[in-house]
């Protein structure tokens, strides 16, 4: 799943490339992907791209038109992605015959496709007058890289919360933008077990975790910035220390990275760096990652 660093890089790329161009065509191939009906999708034709920004894991394309300003907001979910082309194909996409869910074409003949692999379809597209009405944005927690998200702000979120810290980092209503992959990386950098209780963290642990969160996300954004969408997935994987590296040596201590598997995903950690050598139980029925 694309997380904050990739979504930020994607928004920056689209903003640089699309500001000032207008939408000439929009083709919806997966009706289930469109979550709104008023304004209709057709209303964005002729609109000019004002800016592209990010809210958590959501991309927000802000549009200007003489009639009314609109926003196209999308969330790529677990298996979605954006494919950008300097010259988009003129072929009309056929519903159900392609992984493409939505195609948007611009006045300079460029465009992008929103695609989704697999059978579980979760990609979501919204056409709204105000991005804050999108359910996932209206309930979004603070951005962890915002200037006003201080160490004390973070401590307030953790205080008295008996949830495992892995789940806290991934909870979008508490902190916006961090997912499964970067929560693994942050906890490894902080040398904390993913099963540690948020409420049990010491003041030093909180400071260490806060710093690791900021540093990990900033480094990932710097690494992703300037890359076109086609390169972002590989760039993300190349930067991992533990996530998706089960069986490989930890880059810090050399011990083999371990996994805990769940129904549809896993977490990765280093036993030496994070759990004092303890191998975590494979809690396949845990609700941690749901």
UniProtKB/TrEMBL annotation:
Protein keywords: DNA damage, DNA repair, DNA-binding, Glycosidase, Hydrolase, Lyase, Metal-binding, Multifunctional enzyme, Zinc, Zinc-finger
A Gene Ontology biological process term: base-excision repair
InterPro entries found in the cross-reference section: DNA_glyclase_Znf_dom_DNA_BS, FPG_cat, FPG_N, H2TH_FPG, Ribosomal_uS13-like_H2TH, Znf_DNA_glyclase/AP_lyase, Znf_FPG/IleRS
Residue ranges constituting the FPG-type domain according to the UniProt record: 241-275
Reaction(s) the record says it catalyses: Hydrolysis of DNA containing ring-opened 7-methylguanine residues, releasing 2,6-diamino-4-hydroxy-5-(N-methyl)formamidopyrimidine; 2'-deoxyribonucleotide-(2'-deoxyribose 5'-phosphate)-2'-deoxyribonucleotide-DNA = a 3'-end 2'-deoxyribonucleotide-(2,3-dehydro-2,3-deoxyribose 5'-phosphate)-DNA + a 5'-end 5'-phospho-2'-deoxyribonucleoside-DNA + H(+)
Every Formamidopyrimidine-DNA glycosylase catalytic domain range: 2-123
UniProt keyword Cell membrane present: no
One Pfam family here: H2TH
Needed cofactors: Zn(2+)
Gene Ontology MF terms: 8-oxo-7,8-dihydroguanine DNA N-glycosylase activity; class I DNA-(apurinic or apyrimidinic site) endonuclease activity; damaged DNA binding; zinc ion binding
Family the UniProt entry places it in: Belongs to the FPG family.
Protein name (record): Fpg/Nei family DNA glycosylase
